[in-house]
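Re-running the complex after MR caught last week's input typo. The corrected sequence lines follow. Everything else is unchanged.
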Amino acid sequence: MIVSQVLPVVTDVDVSDVLQRLAEPEYRSEPFNPVILAFCNDLSRALFRDLHARAFPELQALAFWMRKSELLKLKQEFDALQSDCTLLVPRGLVFHVPPSNVDTIFVYSWLLSVLSGNTNVIRLSDRAGDAANTICRVFGETLATADSSVTANTVVLRYGHDEAITSAISAACDVRVIWGGDTSVNAIRRIALPPHAKEMTFPDRYSLAVLAAGAYVRLDDSGKRDLASRFYNDTFWFDQMACSSPRLVVWTGSREECSSASASFYELLEREVRAKEYELAPGPRLNKLTFGYRAILDRPIASYDTFGSEVTVLQLEDIANFSREHCGGGLLFQAYAATIDEVAAIVGRRDQTISHFGFSGAELRAFARKLNGRGVDRCVPVGQALSFHRFWDGYDLLREFMRTVYIQA
Amino acid sequence: MSLDTLLDTPQYGLPRAEKQKLLLAELNSLTELHVRNCPEYARLVEFTNGRTEAERVEDIPFLPVGLFKSHRLASVPPSEVFKTLTSSGTTGQQVSQIFLDRETAMRQTSALNRIVGHVIGPARLPMILIETSALIKDRKRFSARAAGVLGMMNFGRQHFYALDEDMLLDETGLRGFLERFGSQPFLLFGFTFMVWQYFYERVRTLELDLSNGILLHSGGWKKLQDLAVSNDEFKRRFANSTGLRRIYNFYGMVEQVGSIYLEGEDGYLYPPNFADVIVRDPVTLAPAPAGTPGIIQVVSVLPRSYPGHSILTEDMGVIHGEDELTCGRYGKRFSVIGRVPKTELRGCSDIHASTVASR
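Corrected-run output:
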């Protein structure tokens, strides 16, 4: 089977040759091998420097995440995971299947895997966009001057929905990572893995923001503006289509506090949207308008408000009945709740991130304990919703890419 | 009363001030009628702060056209529905459902009469349908294509279907038709792409004389744009190989049957007296000035049985001018640019291809 290879060099390759090579243990490395750390740091610097990469905020966030100080912090965290009687070793060959439309997520998954010492095959969709092409180019340029051990441990292939290729790679891998919606996860999941292999799936998720109205009204003007600005980043960076972007805003507190906080908040958000010159494309805008009108007819909506041309807020009559179906592009459902405990009642398996404001660590821990695994894998301050972290979707990715060897002397 | 004025005044004959005044009164009363009779419409108007008493036509509340795909919107009880129109979606796509009572259907017919009569005159003409006779089967539920053909058939007599069931030209039949009727004015009608693909591409080498024909066609230019055929090119090629020169494209949709926007002799589209177009800025949705492309909104005084008198379409267009009389017509001179581009939003999941579906 011939397939087009994007990295380490652009050429056509035979999939079985690639797999045979990557399966050989000598291409693995020790976790946090200095050569690989150095390469990641070089890649980070190249992304900061590259003119095209600088045009993509998500690539800059990625570069930030890969810089040396962050990697050293990660190494310390890794060291703490081992003990006198446990040793962490790579799992082997990791097959990454990123979504076709979030261009950069595969790099995070690859990074944690390669730092763990694995070899990697990444399937890039033939629909992959500009950011993916840019990162592949910068990646390739950085590889050109890198140590041969790095060049040999990662292969990026670009192909469409070709089950034969996916099957061949799946049969050879030790870990399969599927990012993307439920449909992609289900489709790829049907393809067999070796008995020992493990799989991580990242299906469709839903995220919300929980804001304490009392704490909000006590903020001074600059604090309010700052919160709006951070909320803007969480919500509008990927046109509200990232799985961790909030789509429902829940204010907690008395009704009076909630409604006065809400009124001030969206006014500032509108200002922020305008200052950032955010503009949704006409197609998604019409889609959003139609979605909002349909919601008025089909859902228990108390009001429909627009703030400028980009922010639409649909107030729910109560928090209990809402549907997670969503159009993205700056439409927010909103509900009022007396306490965060009321939010717990509606949480389900699909819910991933809660961006919070005005709650203490203890309150959030109590909330998570109350949920006890029913849903919600992350609680992060407003502004951090999109920040990738080793803890994601309920996994500790740093651990998931390694096996634990038990050693009793 | 103002409906009669709008219909009876010679089409394209009303200057802006007069037209807007008549339209506004009629549209406001339709908003009120639909608020009273269609609970869904009433809820939408209430929630979106739409004005039931607008001061300008631009302020009449509008519905996004996609709502007619997801919801059954009617302002008459089911017992009064006399015909249900559906849009021609491809398999799996949701289609619009438009509910007509007798009155609305009659309004549509008489409105269409005024527009088409403007170019073909009062008499019915022998007519070539660039269609297959297999199209019209179920008389209770019409596809947009069938409804369009049926509506147009009223303007003709001695109808001849030029295509067989395999979309092949009936050359013998066509020659026979032309022998009988070709020396006096006759009418041709078809959908733009079919006219080109199944008719023009066949007749261009047959050395037929279509110079007495009047061709009306509609249905969008997308497929022809893919073939790099513009409206000018379309007309030029027909004129050169068949002598057919009176060719009128029109813009219309199943959600507002009867209100068609017919091409003037200058090659641009014009609203009839009883309908209008507003082009809206794609970002703010505020009315865009002449010369600026945007999303097309259509208003029409015809729909009484369903709340479709003011619809935001999924088409892009541009208004070039108004009341310029470049071909003797009052009203807005405009062009349709194409569909609002479907842009896929990037995201983590694969379910969100913008669902602005094609009609």
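None of the earlier attempt is carried over here. Residues 252 and 339 of chain A are 5 Å apart (CA to CA). The radius of gyration of chain A is 23 Å.
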